[in-house]
Amino acid sequence: MAEHPLANLRKKLKEENLLDKPTLKSWAKVIILFAIVFGLYSAHIYLPLKFGLLLIPITALFSTTLAMTGHEGVHSSACRSKLGNISLAAIVFSLFAGFSMEYWREKHNVKHHAQPNVVNKDPDIHSWPFTFSQEEYNTSGPTRKFFQRNLQGWAFWPISLLVGHLMRLDGLKYIALKPFKAKKNKRITKVWLLDTALILLHFALWIALPIFAGLSWQITLGFYALLWGLVGTCLTAIFIVGHAGRPIITDYDQNWRLQIETARRIKFGPIGSFFFVGLDYQIEHHMLPALSHFNLPKAAPLVKEYAEERGWQYQELGFFRALWESTVALHRAWKTPSLILDENGELSDPLESEPSTV
Q1: How far is CA 121 from the centre of its chain?
Q2: Per residue in 209-259, pLDDT tens?
């Protein structure tokens, strides 16, 4: 039986004790973030409106970071036990953020991680009305083509204000339809019941309780819409720099190469890395999704060595450079062809194929 392609890498990680999942550190970070956001939310109640509006970007940033710890729970990378990971994901994703952990697992873990940036496989590169490749542009209608060619790069960031709300809506649709679409023995599961109950409790705590306590419905709904709109933009910035501007693939022959060459590593100091919850190490996260984000910095040199030994591209960029390149890639996506990733040719960087006119 052939040796697993990651056997040697995993052996090195085990020798460095990087496969262990630091349960206490994961929960400590979640508790600290809950304390911070609770303090910020309390400040919004007592501050005059103009000061509250100045504070809300900071509140959104910490809320995003807290929400992203749920991503670790869904990947089972936060805690040693299954119960611990489900509990963390349920409290953070379902209860705090109102995002369905079941929907996220299906969309992100099962579909995106399996085939990142692969046409017709990765849901993250199929988001109407946008296009991420020339091939998809060619199949669009005239109105959508005009948008993709002339407007999508400019419209992307304003539209990102809807991302948090759309994620919540997609999750609600998923859990509502699952009892009718899933296989008979997987329709009403304990996780589905937990997910559904906590999302309903999310709305009760965020909307019904403040109104019942005396806050006006206009302020309550306005704060909720604005806060989670800004969280959506923060989430977009975190996820877009990990893959946008990297090659879009139509076919490939090695999954591990796919994981490395369709992602990029974001170079950050410890403060920036704190807010990214491991997704600044996007390549390492894709290679080893069950690895705790606390261990990714130490794993990065080993993964980079693994890639370079095979002659694969391992891209590292600063955050603002990656943000710029991702936005440029969106401007040019309509004329950027997809590539075949195999041993017969080198993979070209889509942003180096012609000078940028943005």
Answers
A1: 17
A2: 999 988 889 999 999 999 999 999 999 999 999 999 899 998 888 888 899
User: Can you read off the two tokens belonging to residue 243?
Assistant: 């893959």
Cα–Cα distance, 45 to 332 (Å, whole number): 44
C-alpha pair distances (Å), 202 with each of 96, 98, 233, 237, 259: 6, 6, 21, 25, 34
Instruction: Encode pLDDT of 47-87 as tens digits.
Output: 888 888 899 999 999 999 999 999 999 999 999 999 999 99
> Which two three-digit tokens encode residue 132?
């991420």
315 φ/ψ sector (left φ>0, alpha ψ -120 to 50, else beta): beta
pTM of the entire structure? 0.88
Query: Which of helix, strand or coil describes residue 317?
Result: strand
Domain layout of the chain by residue ranges: 7-352
CA angle 10, 262, 127 (to 5 degrees): 125
Beta bridge partners of 321: none
What local confidence, expressed as pLDDT, does residue 27 receive? 96
Contacts of 94 (CB under 8 A, 6+ apart): 100, 101, 194, 195, 198, 199, 202
* Averaged pLDDT, 331-355: 72
Cα–Cα distance for residue pair 261/304, rounded to 1 Å: 11
In three-state secondary structure terms, 332 is helix
The HSE-up count of residue 53 (CA atoms within 13 Å, CB side) is: 5
Q: Which of 305, 286, 290 is nearest to 242 (CA)?
A: 286
Which amino acid is it at 237? A
